[in-house]
């Protein structure tokens, strides 16, 4: 696929992300002008998506985006009120379009109707909308404007003026005269500033005052009063405020005649100065990934130059003194910061993946009549943006399956002594160089007997052979495997789990399934990270520096007594076995160590496996830019390395080190 | 063998070796290798290369290979992202087809060679990157 096509997909991803963010704004109580700005942004997003899909020849997608655009248009014209259920439906629609775009990107055929799953809700919304013809009152004639300015108002602007006056908001005008050279930027800045005070309805060309040069505009906004001081002016700029129309002048009879006129969305009283304005549209700078990579490579070359300079300085330290060493340390710090910033450009928080799952679960819960308690953990962790786009679909399949197949209906759960509300918990954690996702439900678990008989029926298993639980669980990941005789609307089509597996494996990851009858299921996804910033405890051992991810460090202790591998140490009332890091990594055994680090399994209970790891010296803590090791260089217990002033600092994989420590301790026992 | 174009004649692991230039990303100045604790057999450590870690071959772990005398002066970077420390670069060659011989099965280095070039009574061994990588994977598992 050529690069320009990739750019289109990337832009679509951005548009979907913006749509999710904006919909999130609508979920909270907001002032009317913020709601209006959000709806306008969503209207523009879907309009752009429609155009882009049409350009690519995806006409069914374009049609679906157009339908969503129509709903946003109804909202922005005040013909539909923003309510929780409306936002939920719109969220489902955006998710359906996003999932559809993902399928198209993989070269799949277009479905007939992308919005099939919410067609009933969309129909209801369209029916609920106040009809445009007949009942619509036009109050723009109340505006104190010349006729030619009045003619310039669009249908949308007229509708807004009417709706806002009916909502008892005055319409204000701000006339500004700007310099030819800078009017473009200044108009944008002043419009944004006025938009903070109320809903900006229109920007009209205006007459330039006599004896002035430049361009003049009239900004029309709905707000109780205009705070001119907040519109910071440059020297030579002229500004005047006028009241264009006051709602008191709207005849009361007319207000009574139009009961269906939408009131502003119910909002909590928020003082104007504290009004949470809709996030300003951030300018998105689109860069091809290879440019960032080239920059990273260049930065690495600079790092290598720094290394050479550092070697020279060290060799001549006596003659040069300490100052050059300090300068190089500063340079190292600066380089690390730039590298981290570059990495941040590629990263997104996992919570943006979670935010896409939540509305789908709500919608499925409603459709299936199964109440679901959804919980997330680890949303603060970050993953590469490119991974986020590819994980969306697998997650949707897994959650859909959990609700459709895993969770029992409320009556069945009650009969089993379970809470009527099913539970789905999605937890992300960083394990070694992998990002791990655990998706747990407390449903009925996999029906292994059924899977086995279906496997035999499909010729995937041989009759009479013993099949382990693991084999049977994995069978559900085979293409075309399904135990459902008929496809439900949600799942059971025999597609999905194999898609999940192929997508996860294509990312170099793994999927592991397990379940307990009537207790629930656990689906574990492990995705390798190529780079990450990891907070570590830095230690020294056998003359080398190592980093231990802080998430796995339970305690750090140092004393006078020398300890040896195989000793027991008392920590917080527990007696723990001690093993030296040297023994774990196959390095020469130390004569004895005074410091140790208690390692525990990340996220596990305090009584789970933990070991005291003997080290020569505790160096402190720091944030390290972790680079993973190439496959040929994978070494047991090492998850990656971080380039430092004194060389590469190896970052330990705590889980692997725990395993190595236990093995080493077992060998000691065997030797005795 | 000659259809592979030019060959780089180097001295590495105490051997005269030929590296097909089509198999090379580039040849760079040697930099200190970060030694990997608990390293896998065949790999001594890594160096930074184009923003990533590049594994560096441990010649002494290969059958028929031996540790270099002294510090390497350069590193040949193979396309499958593996660094080969080199003691000396002798030059480039484009040997005629008749100069090529099969690898002697008795040669301990046979598992990572593609052929031998006999030029002016010199026996120059040609390294086969695909066989070398396969061998590295194998000896790591065997360990």
Automatic annotation (TrEMBL), chain A:
<keyword id="KW-0808">Transferase</keyword>
<dbReference type="InterPro" id="IPR003594">
    <property type="entry name" value="HATPase_dom"/>
</dbReference>
<dbReference type="Pfam" id="PF02518">
    <property type="entry name" value="HATPase_c"/>
</dbReference>
<feature type="modified residue" description="Phosphohistidine">
    <location>
        <position position="47"/>
    </location>
</feature>
<dbReference type="InterPro" id="IPR005467">
    <property type="entry name" value="His_kinase_dom"/>
</dbReference>
<dbReference type="Pfam" id="PF01584">
    <property type="entry name" value="CheW"/>
</dbReference>
<dbReference type="Pfam" id="PF01627">
    <property type="entry name" value="Hpt"/>
</dbReference>
<protein>
    <recommendedName>
        <fullName>histidine kinase</fullName>
        <ecNumber>2.7.13.3</ecNumber>
    </recommendedName>
</protein>
<dbReference type="InterPro" id="IPR036061">
    <property type="entry name" value="CheW-like_dom_sf"/>
</dbReference>
<dbReference type="InterPro" id="IPR008207">
    <property type="entry name" value="Sig_transdc_His_kin_Hpt_dom"/>
</dbReference>
<dbReference type="InterPro" id="IPR051315">
    <property type="entry name" value="Bact_Chemotaxis_CheA"/>
</dbReference>
<dbReference type="InterPro" id="IPR036890">
    <property type="entry name" value="HATPase_C_sf"/>
</dbReference>
<keyword id="KW-0418">Kinase</keyword>
<feature type="domain" description="HPt">
    <location>
        <begin position="1"/>
        <end position="104"/>
    </location>
</feature>
<dbReference type="InterPro" id="IPR036641">
    <property type="entry name" value="HPT_dom_sf"/>
</dbReference>
<dbReference type="InterPro" id="IPR002545">
    <property type="entry name" value="CheW-lke_dom"/>
</dbReference>
<feature type="domain" description="Histidine kinase">
    <location>
        <begin position="327"/>
        <end position="531"/>
    </location>
</feature>
<dbReference type="GO" id="GO:0000155">
    <property type="term" value="F:phosphorelay sensor kinase activity"/>
</dbReference>
<dbReference type="InterPro" id="IPR004358">
    <property type="entry name" value="Sig_transdc_His_kin-like_C"/>
</dbReference>
<dbReference type="GO" id="GO:0006935">
    <property type="term" value="P:chemotaxis"/>
</dbReference>
<keyword id="KW-0597">Phosphoprotein</keyword>
From TrEMBL, chain B:
<dbReference type="GO" id="GO:0007165">
    <property type="term" value="P:signal transduction"/>
</dbReference>
<dbReference type="InterPro" id="IPR036061">
    <property type="entry name" value="CheW-like_dom_sf"/>
</dbReference>
<protein>
    <submittedName>
        <fullName>Chemotaxis protein CheW</fullName>
    </submittedName>
</protein>
<dbReference type="Pfam" id="PF01584">
    <property type="entry name" value="CheW"/>
</dbReference>
<feature type="domain" description="CheW-like">
    <location>
        <begin position="8"/>
        <end position="134"/>
    </location>
</feature>
<dbReference type="InterPro" id="IPR002545">
    <property type="entry name" value="CheW-lke_dom"/>
</dbReference>
<dbReference type="GO" id="GO:0006935">
    <property type="term" value="P:chemotaxis"/>
</dbReference>
